[in-house]
Design a protein that fits this description.
5-stranded mixed β-sheet, binds zinc ion
Length: 223
């Protein structure tokens, strides 16, 4: 059976980049143009790869820190390498009697601007001028759940911007710390890079190589 990756043009631009580099180094302006015009990997609908993935896309409904829905579809879209790594962490956790709960994946840049308009505070929202790693399809917000989908003790709710959300917070129930560490270990083993101030946020390795994008969630590519 063909997997989603078989039909996805992953890094088709790489041979071109190698060829250009071999001929002559790019000027800064040329390099910028190359980034803008290169063939970028399609976004993958991770739930289409694993229909058992537990999704709770917070920004597609009003129950989030913005108080209203800002996504037009409740989908977890990621660049292919990140999609593969997320499912790798899910497999690790399932073997330990847990599963991932997914709160956020790819976020269109226009939504980032809207979030910034509602809450222009860099402590809470990434400045759209620089973009969020979510805008590159290379970051996820995830928590842990029991195998039946029920809640397990976690340090805080998603997008709880208090010191208790810091990855090194210790003023928490032992079970919450244990679950945070279990999640962090499974994600790190799959290559994800943890964010010190948000226990739920992880960046895919090489996130900076993926461009900021603004494909709507409802129409972005999927397998
Ligand atoms: Zn995040």
């Amino acid at each position: 059976m063909r997997s989603a990756f078989d039909t996805t043009p992953v890094w088709r631009f790489l041979p071109l980049a190698v060829t250009l580099a071999a001929v002559a180094p790019l000027s800064a302006q040329q390099a910028e143009t190359a980034v803008e015009t290169r063939d970028v990997p399609a976004l993958i609908d991770v739930a289409a790869m694993d229909s058992t993935l537990l999704l709770d896309m917070r920004y597609a409904r009003p129950e989030n820190f913005l108080g209203r829905a800002v996504y037009d579809a409740a989908r977890c879209l990621l660049v292919p390498d990140a999609a593969r790594r997320l499912l790798e962490a899910e497999r690790t956790l399932r073997a330990e009697g847990y599963r991932l709960i997914v709160w956020d994946c790819y976020r269109p840049l226009s939504v980032q601007r809207e979030m910034w308009r509602i809450l222009p505070d860099p402590d809470y929202v990434a400045d759209p001028a620089r973009g969020s790693r979510h805008n590159r399809g290379a970051a996820v917000d995830v928590g842990l759940a029991a195998l039946d989908g029920s809640a397990v003790p976690l340090p805080t709710a998603h997008d709880d911007f208090t010191p208790l959300a810091h990855r090194d917070a210790t003023d928490l129930p032992a079970e919450a710390i244990e679950d945070r560490e279990r999640l962090g270990k499974a994600m790190s083993e799959a290559g994800w890079i943890p964010l010190p101030t948000e226990w739920w946020h992880f960046d895919a390795p090489g996130w900076e190589s993926y461009p900021l994008r603004d494909d709507p969630l409802s129409s972005a590519a999927s397998p």
